[in-house]
Design brief:
- The complex is a heterodimer.
- Chain A is mainly α.
- Helix content of chain A is about 70%, strand content about 0%.
- In chain A, helix 3 packs parallel to helix 6, helix 3 packs antiparallel against helix 7 and helix 4 packs across helix 6.
- In chain B, strands 1, 2, 3, 4, 5 and 6 form a 6-stranded antiparallel β-sheet that branches.
- In chain B, a hairpin with a 2-residue loop joins strand 2 and strand 3.
- Classes of the chains: A mainly alpha, B alpha+beta.
- At the A-B interface, helix 4 and helix 5 of A face helix 1 of B.
- Chain B: Belongs to the RnfG family.
- Chain B: It is found in: Cell inner membrane.
- Chain B: This is Ion-translocating oxidoreductase complex subunit G.
């Protein structure tokens, strides 16, 4: 990396401009499989964020020690260990949540966002930047997971944040929303096709936002400096 | 050649060192939280049992007073756990963990409590792979269908009515999902049949279980 990125850029890249789920399309396996509800998505996202931050930090710390030819196996080791630790800690201290998410936690290992960040960012940057990058990327993924989960849950079941109290404690019951028992959901949203369709819509929406922003920026340039625009 | 060998050994040693560190970290954590996890599992199971047992009459720990039986045809698995609930030693209820072998998408694990008089204390689904939105209405958190079993017995409704409505029985099916409720109803009925067949043998103290229900099963 030639010039170290500013904290601001790392944050905005992780959350939006280089969002790993919407732009790089990495980590789709857990993304598509676990987002049947907003609560599941949020829980999975938070667990992923924890793992990715820890693994980025560790990889950054040992980046001068690890020789290039063994870096991938070392990354895999680090990530697998952290996932196991998260799973154990969850079972010990958040057992209710573990019962909801337990099956999916092991899936974090195969989330290529994590090894992607280890390889592309953490192994080339200082500890503080690596930690921030892990956190930002994790948060970006959490946003996508929660939104997609909420979308599928709302369309498919007519609820939102159902059972969120298992994840966040009793206060979260106020988050739960229901469209009523008579709501006939579109089942397809909950089934696997719903995940693909929902993700496609989210990507399209993001591109739309970006295009709008670009056009607006271009228009401002035209107003501010018409000569340069006509010249090009 | 020499430098290559040195670099090879160095890489290998480094990788090995990483493996040792990660594995010990995991092992230490596992060791320190193992007891806590076992406690959690025990408490979760106990809480589940308490919802389908007449707790005010039970003063033993059914989870400690357990028995393993084998009746594949009625209970769906090679081995099934039976938890016995007692009051001062006299039988109150048994809780079985039958498996529904013919769910729509794989086996469904149940928890069925049968009171001493043969009525159901309650049924809960422990795990399943049914379709979200359709078959998963057997879960207590999704619909109260499964609560409808409470208080039923082999005479209420009569045996031939132990089926979903579509098959001429007494139990509701779900729109779009008949297979799941049908197989659950059948499994609960079979569990009741098994308990009726075994009678008091299921409550026998563990010492004289050698030739008891384990070999009894479904002949």
């Amino acid at each position: 990396m030639s010039a170290p990125q500013s904290y601001r850029r790392i944050l905005s890249a992780g959350l939006w401009s280089n969002n790993q789920s919407l732009v790089a399309l990495l980590g789709l396996c857990p993304l598509l499989a676990t987002t049947t509800s907003a609560t599941n998505g949020l829980g999975m996202g938070l667990a992923t964020t924890a793992v990715i931050t820890c693994s980025n930090g560790t990889v950054s710390l040992v980046r001068h020690l690890v020789r290039p030819e063994i870096r991938i196996p070392v990354f895999v080791l680090v990530i697998a260990s952290f996932v196991t630790l998260v799973e154990l800690i969850m079972q010990a201290f958040f057992y209710d949540l573990y019962q909801v998410l337990g099956l999916f936690i092991a899936l974090i290992v195969v989330n290529c966002i994590i090894i992607g960040r280890a390889e592309a960012f953490a192994s080339k940057n200082r500890l503080d930047r690596a930690l921030l990058d892990g956190f930002a990327v994790g948060l970006g993924a959490t946003l996508v997971l929660t939104t997609l989960g909420g979308l599928r849950e709302l369309v498919g079941q007519g609820t939102l944040f159902h059972q969120a109290d298992l994840l966040l404690g009793d206060w979260a019951k106020v988050l739960s929303l229901s469209l009523g028992k008579d709501f006939q959901g579109a089942l397809i949203a909950i089934l696997p096709p719903g995940a693909f369709i929902g993700l496609g819509l989210m990507i399209a929406l993001k591109n739309l936002f970006d295009q709008r922003a670009k056009r607006r920026a271009a228009a401002q340039v035209v107003v501010a400096a018409p000569t340069t625009v006509t010249a090009t | 050649m020499r430098t290559k060998l040195v670099s090879l050994l160095l890489s290998g040693g480094l990788l090995g060192a990483f493996a040792v560190i990660s594995v010990s970290l995991v092992a230490i954590t596992h060791d320190s939280v193992e007891a806590r996890i076992a406690d959690n599992q025990y408490l979760a199971m106990k809480r589940k049992l308490d919802t389908i047992l007449p707790t005010e009459q039970v003063n033993n720990d059914p989870l400690q007073d357990r028995l393993q039986v084998s009746a594949r045809q009625l209970l769906g698995a090679d081995f099934t756990q039976v938890y016995r609930a007692r009051h001062d030693g006299s039988p109150v209820a048994v809780v079985l963990e039958p498996v529904v072998p013919d769910g729509y998408a794989g086996p469904i694990k149940l928890l069925v409590s049968v009171l001493r008089d043969g009525t159901l204390g309650g049924v809960r689904v422990v795990s399943h792979h049914e379709t979200p939105g359709l078959g998963d209405k057997i879960e207590e958190s999704k619909s109260d269908w499964v609560l409808g079993f409470t208080g039923k017995s082999l005479t209420n409704p009569p045996l031939e009515k132990w089926a979903v409505r579509r098959d001429g029985g007494e139990f509701d099916q779900f729109t779009g999902a008949t297979i799941t409720p049908r197989s659950v109803v059948k499994a609960v009925r079979d569990t009741l049949l098994y308990v009726q067949q075994q009678g008091e043998a299921l409550y026998a103290p563990r010492e004289d279980q050698a030739g008891g229900p384990t070999s009894g099963g479904q002949g």
